[in-house]
Amino acid sequence: MTEYKMFEGCTIGNRIPFIEASSRKVFDKLGIETSQAPFACCPDPTGMKSFDNDAWLVMGARNISLAEAEGKDIVSLCNGCTNTLRGVQHQLKHDNLKKDKVNAELAKVGKKFKGSIDIKHFVDVLKDEVGMDKIKGAVSKPLSAIKVACHPGCHYMRPAEWMESDDPLRPINLKKLAAASGATVVDYDELALCCGSAVTNAYEEPGFLNLKTKMDSIKNSGADAIVVNCPACFQQLDTRQRDLSKKFETEYNIPVLYLTELYALAMGYSPDELGLKFHRTRLNDLLAKIGL
Amino acid sequence: METNFEFRKQVMDFHIGSDVIKYCYQCSRCADNCPVTAVTADFYGTEGYNPRGNILMALLGYKDLLLGGDDLTIWGCTVCDTCDEVCPQNIELTEIFTFLKNQSIALGKGPEFIFSQAKAIFENAKAIPSQPAIERRRDQLGLPTVSQPDVNEVQTLLKNIGSDKKLK
Questions:
Q1: Nearest chain A CA: its distance from B3 CA (Å)
Q2: Chain A partners within 8 Å of B118 (Cβ)
Q3: Whether A285 and A147 share a structural domain
Q4: ∠ CA B82-B86-B88 to the nearest 5 degrees?
């Protein structure tokens, strides 16, 4: 397997690094090689893109050019970063005027966007390059005692036109991958519903109402945990779950695991090594069920 | 209500796929599948966030109506891209909403969060800057130090396109 440039992103790198810890452990175990690059913010497809699309394009193109200079593809740990980098590449590849404009700006700082590399979400690297057999082979402690509900998030598969990863409204990749840990994957009605992170940052009221719809549906599924592949979704479901419980006087207490945390547990890593204590929604009951 | 033809042209020209906006026949699949409409619209759908209405107003060039009222009109969008997937005319609604949001910012309007994130990115080249406490945690978790971006270079790029002038 080729070496990727690791794009951990601002949220994982500088706020919730325990997700990077499990990711690096799982990558090592499965033979995914990565190296670092001085990437800037991707930038955020829900924030900075809304602020100024041109700024989003030029910063995104600059990040891609850093990986291009080394001739390496990017593996991203985050839906948002993947969506931005793929989206920037998509816009620039389909609009030469825009591409020339962006390259004129990049030339002033000695950089150039070519569009010569691929940007992959780590879920797709696991699915397409590592493969189910190898993942199942690396599982030493199957998590057969627990039921999980999957939340792939929006920007992993939408817009389908440039994400090219999964069915945009009935996603299956995360469900299949989560099942490789030995856990039972349960379905729920609101699988494809947004976590609401972006709107909650601007307007709490509709944000929490949306989160309630999502969490009620997950609660009804009987899941012991939620599996995610995006740090923004992780924070929305993990951190804001407590506020939601207070607001609507409903107990949820459904811990959230990154796909790589689920795998790391199934591969025998301890909760301490993974920094699971930094989660906001407590994992005690879940860990007890899997004998930890 | 007045049609702003310049604005209307900008909407049409914004993006490679945007001219398909003129094929919108107001079927409302976008609003029917919008998670924010679901929790903000009233019984008659006359209040709250409405992607269908935004497309209609953008197409008609009603700039003042779109940008002059309650911020929720535009900023209620949570960028989930669901509308893009269900639109029978393949209109990339979210790209048009991006244009509307960019216009709103140019008028100095929009949620505080958007301005503060843009400011953080301008100052640190990261939406979330590195902090000593997190660096220590990374170290405890056996992680390498985050590779630091060239802040000056990013600031130069943003200044050259005038993005810094939109900051509050």
A1: 24
A2: 47-48, 51-52, 55
A3: yes
A4: 150
